[in-house]
Amino acid sequence: MNRRNFLKNSVASTLASLIPFNLALSNNDKANISDKILVVLELSGGNDGLNTIVPYGDDLYYKHRPNLGIKKEDLLIIDDHFGFNPGIVGLERLYKDGQMAIFHGCGYENPSFSHFTSMNYMHTAAPNSGEEYGWLGRLADNMAPNTYKNLLINVDKSQSLAVRSENHVPIVFDDPNRFQRQGFDTQKQLLSNIGVSEGQKAVNKTHDFLLQLSAGANDSSSLISTAWNDYKRQVDYGIAPTDLDKIAALIEHDMPSRLYYTSFRDNAFDTHVHQANLHRRLLSYASDAIRGFMEDIDRIGKAEEVILLVMTEFGRRVPENTSLGTDHGAAGPMFIIGHNVKGGHYGTIPDLKNGLDDGDNLKFTTDFRNVYATAIEGWLDINSKNILKKQFDTFDIFGGTV
What we know:
By secondary structure, the protein is an alpha/beta fold.
């Protein structure tokens, strides 16, 4: 088994999920890596964009949602057409400070309404293609093609496809104080014995690679635990930090990783039934965590180096359903938040009269890869064409306040 095939194996991905932070990059790799950091937060389950950024100025919104439509007097008004869901006070503050870009109508051609399939498309940035690697994984390969050392950290219960890479193995962890090697029962003996004996000699190249991964796992688990134990939370993240505090701890500890991925757990935003109160509560948790994270990043002096991209796998259908919820839809908003972001509205606002398909879903007006390309090119200053498989237009969102 060669090294590339081994990396595709789930055992290797788990075993290698904690490889060393000392990047030891080649000169060619160093040229593509700056101090800038991209953090991605996934609102898993399909966030309802229409009840997040509410078009109260359009009467059709209330016609489609006679029960779920949020009244103007209850909204956090941001202009003469839109208001924020009353649960997202934290995001309202960031928006009014000019640090939040809203991208309207994000989606893709021939949308899937399956959680698994649509998230696969969002993770790979390659709808209907069968792409093997994630967009952040391909980005890491582009940033550092000549090394197996890692640029990626994925904070979650399991590895996301978004960080799957041909050459890099992401660091994946949930609880920074409880690292363990996981695998199928038939693999556990192998996992428990690799690299245990001090001075163990490699018998071939694959075994040597395994030994290096094992040593790296031990080293990295210690580094992450140290960073977390040294971190003293001084900012209010609200009830559910959504793992953003763990990312802040690593950034404060000056880890050299540049790409971070985490998600709101367990498809929480899949609001088919009695959505109103649940959705407001979920948005409140996410909004407070995002505001806390951005304040924390500012506190540790990294505000000029970090942006946060917020996405979901799809929006919701425009009409409410008979269970006072919303069903799987298509287009919805995405956000990029940061000190250097020119806040405001970007992209074409979907038309609730003429912009619906036969299933009452919003037709996309912005390809979601335009947003990815904006982060890759506008923020990281890397050509996105090879990463996203074609050239996508970018938005001019960096460099101050609109």
